[in-house]
Amino acid sequence: MGNDNNTTKKGKVIIAGAGPGDAELITIKLQKRLTDADVIICDRLVNPAIITQNAKKDVVVIHAGKQGYNDASISQDEINELIVSHALEGRTVLRLKGGDVAFFSNVLDELYAITAHEIPFEIIPGITAAAGASAYAGIPLTARGFSQGVQWVTFSPSSNYNHEKWEYLAASNDTLVFYMASKNVFQLAEQLIKYIGEKDIALAIIEQATTPYQKVNISTLKNCTIDFKGKKFSSPSLVIVGDVVKLHQQFNWFNGDNEGSIFKELEK
């Protein structure tokens, strides 16, 4: 690996969102940058077709893991070191993240590392998982008569939200979108019922949104423990809670009809 000195010209880092899964849901700017990249450092949930269809043949691809609940994932410090070392050796480095770079990613850590070495960079937004999942499930996140706002929240065993946080969520009429929550959806429903009081609020779990393997699972806070008993949801999955979920049946236009996972090669 290289080091920070003046003997070589610094490269450039591009931090970009690869969208929610459909290989066609990327920006024109990202498509152009894919052809320029010497090194691509990508998260686990980036559709491999985005790289194979757009990057140059001799590009170096590094899979950075970043899988929740998986200790084998590459640490953020290691990712930072990879980005910086390749850029300091004069390469164009594309840091490719699933969804959008600003939603529940460690982009800030990477920006700190890049700017500490005065490496030129740019940020390219992408379609976040919530936008892709809601669109392909026919569930508008906001809709007149249903919801005037939306909140994006994570939920996992390590969340440890206090009473004030749950009360704030319960008091809102917004659509609630929970990232990283499908494995703990029963605990999530229990908490929401406890603070909201209403048990019949609609809930959707959308698996592998925008891909041929997409599945939309509909229930309510009250019934999800019965409807989803024993079910294992494929990664990535997103949980949407609110009245807008009721619109799925009327406006569902996309039907994934394949079994398996588009990300199976990266899940081994």
Structure commentary:
This protein has 9 helices and 10 strands. With about 270 residues, the chain is an alpha/beta fold. It has 2 domains: about 10-125, 3-Layer(aba) Sandwich (Cobalt-precorrin-4 Transmethylase, domain 1), CATH 3.40.1010; about 130-250, 2-Layer Sandwich (Methyltransferase, Cobalt-precorrin-4 Transmethylase, Domain 2), CATH 3.30.950.10. The protein has a 5-stranded parallel beta sheet with strand order 3-2-4-1-5, sandwiched between helices. A 5-stranded mixed beta sheet has the order 6-7-10-8-9, covered by helices on one side. It is globular. It starts with 11 loop residues before the first strand and ends in a 17-residue tail after the last helix. Residues about 1-5 have low confidence and may be disordered.
